């Protein structure tokens, strides 16, 4: 497999770090599919199977989900011999070449002991393919298929049009953030989007047993697993939220339930995030989607929080969010019908334009910090 590195290369920023991270992430992701040799040369990462029992299909699928890679191709390996190269190219690329109208061949000779120079290799392979596929014409400027031949130390490699990679930046290159992960559609998408920007995720989930079930918890764990195919392993802090919700219900005015609850979530999440080396919080809030996501409500929600709150889906329509959820395969799990703690005590008439001072004075009816500390003490990280 040959993987082309993404945008940091273009910006020339801290390239060594980018490559090292990416190779480490990639090695971790494909480790279960066999023993591979992974190295980087000229903005390309090479992944070579070290034995015959490597599952290349599975490794290829996993590599397509590794952030920091713009495109990937699977190359056929062959002996460093021009006739071998031609016959492998004909056979391996037949599915692509037999459907194309135009092509060209590019050759690269890393092993300078190979007797033919790059242009000669390109011409010989090109004319052999031209003879073999009657549908093909040569177009050096804008070919449909660009066949590449690489003569490397160990072997020669033949490949053609690459498939798109996951894009983005390698996980970890942009720090770590606390992800408020619910069982809904939006927060897994928010997770994917920030992971794509190179952020390592630390999940935080609030559950209200027995109002929310064990299955609701399992659903969140499954979602973290699905997003984890892109984002890497995600730990989750499971915060017991029942007592806080019951206290709010018993003591505060109904129209402020949701806002006070969300302020607890942010307060607790910030503490847990900070304890776990996170530099920001991430939520799946989208402007105007529900009563607690108006501009005023968001202002109340994050009042007093000092970590930056990243809301990558803030400007997206539900349809756009769903489209990503389908693409990353979280959608079907997200729509499983288990209650989230947010929906357990939903007020009939929530405030859409809350006044901060009213919310704060309602909140003062509770021992806010003590309740939050107790929940944090009883939090389990899984
Ligand atoms: P989602 O689809 O992500 O559940 P939503 O549209 O249902 O979002 P809310 O329920 O208001 O919106 O939640 C807004 C955000 O608050 C979520 O995207 C998530 O980041 C966070 N959140 C909500 N409920 C929880 C929870 N039980 N645990 C952790 N975070 C939560
Ligand atoms: Mg929700």
Just name the CATH architecture of the largest domain.
3-Layer(aba) Sandwich
Number of domains: 3
Residues in helices, as a percent range:
40-55%
Content of β-strand: 15-25%
Overview of the molecule:
- The structure is a single chain.
- 42% of the residues lie in helices and 20% in strands.
- It is an alpha/beta fold and 382 residues long.
- The protein folds into 3 domains: 1-72, THUMP domain-like (Alpha-Beta Plaits); 80-154, VC0802-like (2-Layer Sandwich); 176-381, HUPs (Rossmann fold).
- A 6-stranded mixed β-sheet has the order 15-14-11-12-13-16, sandwiched between helices. It has a 5-stranded antiparallel β-sheet with strand order 2-3-1-4-10. Strands 5-9-8-6-7 form a 5-stranded mixed β-sheet.
- The longest helix has 19 residues, at 257-275.
- The protein is elongated, with a radius of gyration of 26 Å.
- Residues 180-182, 184-187, 204-206, 283-285, 289-290, 292, 340-342 line the site of adenosine-5'-triphosphate (ATP).
């Amino acid at each position: 497999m040959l993987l082309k590195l993404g945008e940091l290369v273009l910006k020339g920023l801290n390239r060594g770090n980018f490559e090292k991270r990416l190779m480490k992430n990639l090695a971790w992701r494909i480790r279960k599919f066999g023993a591979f040799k992974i190295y980087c040369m000229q903005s390309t990462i090479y992944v070579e199977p070290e034995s015959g029992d490597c599952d290349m299909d599975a490794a290829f699928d996993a590599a397509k989900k590794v952030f920091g890679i713009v495109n990937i191709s699977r190359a056929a390996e062959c002996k460093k011999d021009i006739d071998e190269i031609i016959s492998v190219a004909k056979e391996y690329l037949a599915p692509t070449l037999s459907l194309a109208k135009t092509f060209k061949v590019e050759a690269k000779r890393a092993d300078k002991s190979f007797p033919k120079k790059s242009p000669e290799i390109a011409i010989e392979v090109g004319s052999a393919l031209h003879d073999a596929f009657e549908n093909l014409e040569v177009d050096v400027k804008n070919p449909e298929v660009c066949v590449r031949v690489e003569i490397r130390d160990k072997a020669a490699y033949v490949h053609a049009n690459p498939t798109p990679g996951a894009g983005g930046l390698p996980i970890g290159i942009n720090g770590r953030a606390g992800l408020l992960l619910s069982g809904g559609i939006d927060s897994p998408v928010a997770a994917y989007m920030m992971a794509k920007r190179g952020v390592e995720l630390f999940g935080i989930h609030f559950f209200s047993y027995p109002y929310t079930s064990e299955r609701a918890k399992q659903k969140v764990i499954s979602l973290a697993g699905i997003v984890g195919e892109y984002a890497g392993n995600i730990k989750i802090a499971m915060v017991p939220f029942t007592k806080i919700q019951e206290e709010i219900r018993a003591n505060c005015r109904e129209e402020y339930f949701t806002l006070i609850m969300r302020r607890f979530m942010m307060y607790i999440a910030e503490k847990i995030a900070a304890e776990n080396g996170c530099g920001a919080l991430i939520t799946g809030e989208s402007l105007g989607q529900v009563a607690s996501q108006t501009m005023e409500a968001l202002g109340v929600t994050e009042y007093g929080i000092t970590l930056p709150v990243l809301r990558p889906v803030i400007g997206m329509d539900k349809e756009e969010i769903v489209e990503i959820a389908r693409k990353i395969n979280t959608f079907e799990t997200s729509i499983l019908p288990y209650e989230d703690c947010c929906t357990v005590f939903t007020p009939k008439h929530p405030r859409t334009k809350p006044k901060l001072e009213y919310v704060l004075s309602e909140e003062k009816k509770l021992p806010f910090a003590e309740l939050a500390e107790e929940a944090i003490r009883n939090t389990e990280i899984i």
